[in-house]
Specification:
Layout (H helix, E strand, L loop, with lengths): L1 H18 L10 H13 L7 H13 L7 H13 L8 H13 L8 H13 L8 H12 L7 E5 L4 E6 L13 E6 L3 E3 L2 E4 L4 E10 L9 E9 L7 E4 L2 H17 L18 E4 L10 E6 L3 E7 L24
Antiparallel strand pairs: 1-11, 2-3, 2-10, 3-6, 4-5, 5-11, 6-7, 7-8, 7-9, 8-10
C-alpha cells in the first residue's frame, strides 16, 4: 500500500510541475540542469549522452522513467529534489529532517544518495541499494517518525544571529578572489518550534580580497564576505555582518579569553566594520578548518520550516544567545 501511495504522490507532483508556470528565472541549458541534478544526487557530473544520464537518474530516484520532453523531465526531477510542494516537501527537506532525527545534525555538504545510504547503515546496518532512492527515503522516515514530514511558513526577523565554522583551511598564500568558502551551521536555527536549518546546514562565503604575505614578515590577509544560509526549504537566507553579529563575535571572543583558550584551539574570525565581511590575517600562515564565524539575517523573510512535533522538541539544540543577540521568536 505504501508503494502505491508513494507512486501516486510522485505522479501528482510531476503533473503539478508540468502544469504550473515556472517562476521567472534565468533560462538554463539542459546540459547545465542535468549537471546540477547529478551534483545534488552524486556529488559530481556523470559522463555520457544526456538522455542516457537522465534515464539513469530517473530510474535511481523513482524506479522508472518519467513522461514528457527532456526539459520537462529535468525540471520535474530537480523540483522533486530541491523545491517540493506544501503537500509533498522536497527530497532535500525530508532528508534533512531524517538526518536531524537520527544525529541532531545534517550532512549538507554530502550528495543525497550518499546521505540516504548513511541513514540506512545507521538504522539497519546495510543500504537498500536495490530500491529507488525516493522509496528508500520514505522507508527511513517511516521508521523514524510517527507522522509524515510536513512544512510550514516561518517568519525570520532581520538580525537573527547564526554561528558557523569553516570547513576547510584558508590561507593567504593560496586563496583567490572569488573562491567559495564553505561554512557549516553550529546549532539549530529555530523559529518557535519550527526547525528552519538544522546544525550542519551549509553557509556560503566568498573571498573578496587577498593580500599575499609580504617581505619583512608582514602577514598576508584574506577578506571573506558571508553571503547566505541554505535552510531545509528551497529559500536561501541572505546573510550579512551587522551589529548583532559583531556583538556575538565580541561576546565569543571574551568568553574564549576568560576560559584561557589558546588561539590554536579556537580561531574566531573577526568582523571588519559593519556589513564588511571578515578579515583573516595570516599571522598563523593559515586559518584552520573549524574557525568560528558569526553572521546575521540581512532582512526579515518568510521561509519553509519543519514544524517539530511536541515529542521531538527536546532534541532542538539552539545556541545560547550572547548579549545583544536577536533570537527568532515564535510566530
Amino acid at each position: 500500500m505504501k508503494k502505491v501511495l508513494i507512486g501516486l504522490c510522485l505522479a501528482a507532483f510531476v503533473v503539478v510541475s508540468f502544469g504550473m508556470p515556472a517562476a521567472a528565472e534565468e533560462p538554463q541549458s539542459t546540459v547545465f540542469l542535468m549537471g546540477r541534478v547529478e551534483r545534488l544526487l552524486y556529488g559530481s557530473e556523470r559522463t555520457g549522452g544526456l538522455i542516457e544520464r537522465l534515464n539513469t537518474v530517473e530510474k535511481e530516484m523513482f524506479g522508472r522513467e518519467l513522461p514528457g520532453s527532456i526539459a520537462e523531465r529535468q525540471n520535474a526531477v530537480l523540483n522533486f529534489i530541491e523545491k517540493g510542494t506544501l503537500e509533498q516537501p522536497s527530497v532535500l527537506f525530508k532528508l534533512g529532517v531524517a538526518e536531524w532525527a537520527v544525529e541532531q545534525k545534517i550532512n549538507a555538504l554530502e550528495p543525497a544518495v550518499k546521505r540516504v545510504e548513511a541513514l540506512e547503515v545507521n538504522l539497519e546496518g546495510t543500504p537498500q541499494v536495490d530500491r529507488p532512492v525516493s522509496m528508500r527515503l520514505e522507508r527511513v522516515l517511516s521508521l523514524l517518525l510517527s507522522e509524515p514530514v510536513s512544512m510550514q511558513d516561518a517568519e525570520i526577523p532581520a538580525g537573527s544571529v547564526v554561528k558557523g565554522a569553516t570547513v576547510s583551511t584558508l590561507s593567504p598564500k593560496t586563496a583567490k578572489k572569488g573562491d567559495i568558502v564553505d561554512i557549516v551551521l553550529q546549532s539549530d536555527f529555530v523559529v518557535g518550534a519550527s526547525l528552519v536549518a538544522p546544525r550542519g546546514s551549509r553557509m556560503q562565503a566568498t573571498v573578496t580580497e587577498v593580500t599575499k604575505p609580504r617581505s619583512f614578515g608582514r602577514p598576508g590577509e584574506v577578506k571573506i564576505t558571508v553571503e547566505k544560509l541554505f535552510p531545509l526549504g528551497p529559500e536561501e537566507i541572505a546573510l550579512t555582518v551587522g551589529e548583532q553579529a559583531k556583538k556575538a563575535s565580541e561576546a565569543e571572543s571574551a568568553q574564549l579569553a576568560a576560559a584561557g583558550t589558546s588561539v590554536v584551539g579556537a580561531i574566531l574570525l573577526g568582523p571588519v566594520g559593519l556589513a564588511g565581511g571578515f578579515l583573516v590575517r595570516g599571522d598563523l600562515k593559515e586559518i584552520p578548518a573549524g574557525s568560528v564565524v558569526f553572521a546575521e539575517s540581512a532582512r526579515a523573510m518568510r521561509v519553509s520550516a519543519y514544524p517539530v512535533p511536541a515529542g521531538l522538541q527536546g532534541m532542538l539544540k539552539t545556541a545560547e544567545p550572547a548579549s545583544g543577540d536577536k533570537v527568532p521568536e515564535a510566530q
